Amino acid sequence: MKLCKVNDLTGKEILAKDIITPEYKILLSAGTILKQDYIQKLQELDIKDVYIKEDQPDAKTVIILREEVGENIRFKVKNILEKHTYSHNEELVELCQTADNIIRNILEEDGVIEKIFDIKGRSSDIYEHSINLCSLATIVALKMKLPQQTVHDIGVSCLLHDLGLRYLTIEYENQNLDMLSEAEYGEYKKHPVYGYSALRSENWISNASKNMILYHHERLDGSGYPLRATEIPKECRIIQICDAFDEMICGIGCERSKVYEAVEYLKTFRNIKFDGEIVDIFLQFTAVYPAGSIVKTNEGETGVVLYQNKDFPDRPVIRITKDKKGKKVDVIKDLIQINHIFIEEVIE
Question: Is the model's pTM score more than 0.90?
Fold first, then answer.
């Protein structure tokens, strides 16, 4: 370990010793991965130095879009959609090019179809949600080897799928919609219709994309809305699965869930609400326990997920930081090589 100035921290460093307050309370425990908000809090508390681990493998997060690319695209999508008013769609056509930019950036990544991605929970930002949905659905479409035009149509519809939410006045972020009044819930369930209606007469967006916007909350068993449809085109089924997952982890139209909970939801309703083949394809590249997650094993140990094992999204490599008695340790365990150990709980 080494002593490091807090002002020199960049994030993702791992504490080697507990940080203790003057009242002898543990502020942050050894083994904690330092996030930017943790660093900021340390600075606010005038903590100058901390001990961090060195010469150890770091958590290796694999993301679909590079951070700078994703931020630039989010700014553009937000800028375009915030200017939109009903039936004034002049600037929305720019999102066709934005969808192609996302697809191109994904295709430029080496081995993108073979990777397992660390998809993490976020705030309920509908612009970031739309971009993440576009990325997820594009990966599925590419793995299914769908035609280029279909991939484009999927990308465009993803960026516009929640356009109808802009016409709502009710709160829908990070809350159980069953707690809404019947009238409010009924209004929320109209947002696919609002989005579809706003674009119905536009000739720059394909009929396939329009239908994806209308159908993105439908389910195979007829439990969806607004049409309770059961005959659903393949490309719409892709968006339904990716959208359901991403809504759960960022808290749009529901209370925010952990990634493994969203994964279990898709598994539970495979071939019931969702197309089983597409669910399987989606889960091939979705890490159940994203890098950086703090987890507890079936043996009572606490650790942090370091990185994923190819073809095994639920068996990552983890660093054990506390044994089952709570004693501090530093042991790397590859869950592919140690079959009797599995992750039982996500702590953070």
Answer: no
